[in-house]
Design brief:
The structure is a homodimer of 597-residue chains. The first copy, chain A, is of the alpha+beta class and 597 residues long. The first copy, chain A, contains 21 helices and 14 strands.
């Protein structure tokens, strides 16, 4: 029932027609790779997801990671799957070739990540965190640290963990209290406790490399006094193999709503003589390094929203095609499969059109990130960077919130069976629910969008995006068919709503940021919905530009048109409502006494 | 952390100012009761909820009901709590005095149910199902059956269970296959398996009375061939005490997303010589009886959405008032409690205004049900009945969907802690998620609303409601203050959106029901949102009509105004968007081949 089929057809469509795969393969960094080779890699990665990872998703949820005496035991099958993941070379796909990585474009790694997270978000979090740690080290660690640790982390033999949060320092990392004391040998001794550490301890790798935020003795208070340290679980012996156990211990793991197979650890550093740590980069710049990397982590979270939505959709559609219940509303005496019921179709198409919009969004941002890195033209690099910066909080916030909505719809399609854990639909909601929280809550993303991304450049980047999106309207107007009328009207209204909201925020924020920020999340959703609508409109244009060359292509085109129109009618329509909320007056809300809530 | 305070102040406000408590106490059935006595009963019922039930909510979730060899063991504390519930006479509050009930107005029992479900929805389901069974028997059972069973069921000594669903017969009860064979002594022998039976087996009562849908040998196929049988767990011996064990057995209980303390049972009837059953009412009229009772069950489900939302709000607000994290956006160097952050306030006020709207909705429908039953004027009875009939699917569908939304927001307010089960916020989402499914999914409610409630009388009842709601607009226009401007504008637009949608459906349904039903759930949400907005507008008018007589009253009035305006700006604004969806063209969606989903 809850197997997984990699959505290679839609991925390929988005890569080729919306995200510019061919252009990316012509950029200097990837010159010589051809689209077909990359598509073959995606096919292999999808196979790994479907065959090795997907079957572990539900057993991993039931069994969960288990803590005993400071050690964590992964559910059955996870060790072997991770070994296969490393053996097949998947771990280093995004990493620099210098340390053994494949340095693939984000366009490709993003599509791979979608599939691995669809198969098992709990599993995929391990390489995701490792990749984040690798990126942080690549950016700022000394050559010596890189040489010692990166090859093993890139291969996946060792994994990385990001140790940021403390019980009093969650969204606000400035409140970090973990201490780092200089040692005579140039290393440091780390003392403190970190909470919510994803894969802080597990039994899949020979060593775990913790990147820990901590304060040096002379550190100024607040955000500018936090440094980053590398603290391995096992110190590295001569020859580069794991040696003595470091003073790092997993005190417990959390009992969580979802991602049960992924250990979320409370980690103690220095309960004895201090955990040996090495400074990464310069003192007091830890938060800065962390934020560089955080942007990538936020894109990964958004991809998780997409990924779980895709899997929830597949399972719901399969169930609706086989479950017989009720009679057809327009008559007939026999029972029908529930996919015949208009509301079941509505739910499925809502799940599907949102998922397709998220995928188009993910790969568009990924392609821009590739251009920002590798385009030969500096102006194009800057434009792409500014697009990625603007879109990162929108993509993270909107796709994770939407992932929750889609997973909940998936339960609903199953009716009573959806509430039974055995069915598997409920797990997707439990799993995806964390994505709107970690790597910065939706509120944090929205504050970043309004307070930084929009205000910093006085709305320049978002106005550029609005212009880009507007440019699709004449094309839509030129097409025949009621689908294009619906899409054009809804997108036009959506763009106008977004435009008004932007002007309103630009005017209101300087006078009172609190007033503007009370509408920040509705504004983020508005931006996400309109961006999705723009991409779905482009998808509709793309499938109807030339006559399809096969029956399969004709089917794909027809379904995509339905999906794009449905998105316009059921999702884009929300844009004017959200704009009204953004523009409403929150004075009473902000003035209400805390005690009266 | 997750304790519960009965929201008596808001309940009292709604009872007195929106639902017409005084008028209800003057109706013949309740003449002589005074509002103060009823309020004292609510206060006692709230105390029971807070002191006896609320502490069991989280331990009951962790422990869960346990099945062993056909028997079900309730979590620690549930047996004692149930005994206290029976001892204190709460079980019979809604039942007829003839069999020992208190026959209280629905206005009061609905408020009590809100509080018990807030405290523990898993516990409250047991008396809720029992009340449903009592009602079915009161309506249609023979005097002999009533005399034998009702006194014990009304006291709560025995509990009732509703055995409808079979694995192939969920939403579509016409597909029921359980058989009833006539026996020479005038009783029947029942054979079949029922699934998803709430409290089908448990250890809190001396006997369990199953109302079972089954087919007689001569039954016509489909909906008109289903009869209702009473099947006790223990046959009743001379003297009215439980005697021999009947051939009824609990085969297993489900592992569910939530309401873990509530056993959801698979029940086998007649695995041996047949379960002894007694026909309730006339043959072949079982579904009809069931549907009479189902309307009440649907109101209970809607109240559960409200109830869980209230509890989730209380916990989130308490957390936001004490959790320190981040600095204030307008400056200051120290950390603040998160309730200072605009987006946290937005989330809390969204939770709260939705909850208040649901409560006003619940008690307004309850009062109408009381009038429909007891008003001396036949026209008023008919008007009230038509209002209740129209509102039942809206209330059930909208309040349960909204309950899920509010519980999810409650997790979000907690940040990372919300995803940890120990916090308790996640349980509310897990528990409330079933309410959009059982007693008819949201899709079923929406089909009932559009296909029956709107079409049956050609829109007469909803047009009457629209007129009633319109009548509040001039009052709003006459009030000073920006709150009233916002409320008036949003409500005016909402009413227009609803009006357009109704006219559209009336025109479209006869031509093609499928086209109309593709927009049925958006229409249901639209109706719920506008009804909630109308009631919040009336609440705003009520608190600002006279100068408050105390500081507490002034505080309540100020907060209610904020909440009503917030609802207008953040919820009612969605109405025009939903209308656009209702009116959109679903032809492509309906035509898409099943295989292409």
């Amino acid at each position: 029932m809850n197997l997984y089929t990699p959505p290679l057809r839609d991925i390929q469509f988005v890569l080729r027609h919306l995200a510019g795969l061919e252009e990316i393969t012509r950029l200097p960094s990837w010159d010589g790779t051809d689209p077909e080779t990359l598509e073959a890699i995606l096919s292999e990665g999808g196979k790994f997801a479907a065959e090795i990872l997907a079957p572990l998703n539900s057993s991993g949820d039931r069994e969960g990671a288990v803590w005993r005496d400071g050690e964590v035991w992964m559910p059955a099958g996870f060790r072997d799957a991770y070994a296969a993941f490393v053996r097949d070379g998947w771990n280093g796909i995004a990493c620099e070739p210098e340390y053994g990585g494949h340095g693939m474009p984000k366009l490709v790694t993003t599509a791979l990540r979608e599939m691995w997270n669809s198969a098992s978000i709990a599993f995929a979090l391990c390489p995701a965190l490792n990749t984040g740690a690798i990126e942080a080290m690549s950016l700022c660690a000394s050559t010596e640290l890189k040489h010692t640790f990166l090859p093993k982390m890139v291969s996946g033999e060792w994994t990385g963990a990001m140790c940021l949060t403390e019980s009093q320092a969650g969204s606000d990392l400035a409140a970090v209290r973990t201490r780092a004391e200089p040692h005579t040998d140039g290393s440091y001794r780390i003392f403190g406790q970190k909470v919510f550490i994803t894969y802080g301890e597990h039994d899949m790798a020979a060593n775990i490399v913790h990147l820990v935020l901590a304060r040096l003795p002379d550190a100024p208070p607040g955000t500018k006094g936090i440094s980053m340290f590398l603290v391995p679980k096992f110190l590295v012996a001569a020859g580069g193999t794991p040696g003595a156990r470091n003073d790092v211990r997993c005190d417990s793991i959390e009992r969580k709503l979802g991602i049960h197979a992924c250990p979320t650890c409370t980690m103690s550093f220095g309960s004895g003589s201090g955990a040996v740590g090495y400074l990464v980069g310069e003192p007091h710049r830890g938060l800065e390094y962390m934020f560089i990397m955080m942007n990538d982590a936020r894109l990964v979270s958004g991809v998780q929203g997409l990924a779980v939505a895709e899997r929830a959709y597949q399972q719901a559609a399969a169930y609706a095609r086989q479950r017989v219940q009720g009679r057809d509303v327009v008559g007939g005496t026999g029972s029908v499969r529930i996919i015949a019921h208009p509301d079941v179709r509505r739910m499925l198409m809502l799940m599907r059109s949102l998922t397709e919009a998220m995928r188009a969004f993910a790969l568009t941002v990924a392609a821009a990130a590739d251009r920002a890195l590798a385009h030969p033209d500096a102006a194009e690099r800057a434009r792409s960077r500014s697009f990625v910066d603007l879109m990162t909080p929108v993509f993270k916030g909107w796709c994770t919130e939407t992932g929750v909505e889609v997973a909940s719809l998936g339960i609903q399609v199953h009716g009573g069976a959806g509430f039974i854990e055995e069915t598997g639909a409920a797990q997707y909601l439990r799993d995806v629910r964390v994505t709107t929280i970690y790597e910065g809550t939706t509120g944090i993303q929205a504050n970043d969008l309004v307070g930084r991304k929009i205000m910093r450049d006085d709305g320049a980047a978002i106005r550029q995006l609005l212009d880009l999106m507007q440019s699709v309207l004449p094309e839509l107007a030129a097409r025949a068919g009621h689908e294009f009328v619906a899409i054009r009207n809804a997108l036009g209204d959506g763009l106008q709503a977004l435009d008004h909201s932007v002007e309103h925020l630009l005017e209101r924020y300087p006078a009172d940021p609190r007033v503007a920020l009370a509408g920040a999340v509705p504004f983020l959703k508005l931006t996400g919905i309109v961006t999705g609508g723009w991409l779905m409109a482009r998808a509709a244009l793309a499938v109807s530009t030339a006559a399809p060359r096969s029956d399969a292509a004709a089917t794909f085109a027809a379904a995509k048109l339905v999906s794009a129109q449905f998105y316009a009618d059921h999702v884009l329509t929300l844009a004017p409502a959200l704009a009204r909320t953004v523009i409403s007056d929150p004075t009473g809300l902000l003035a209400l006494d805390e005690a009266h809530f």
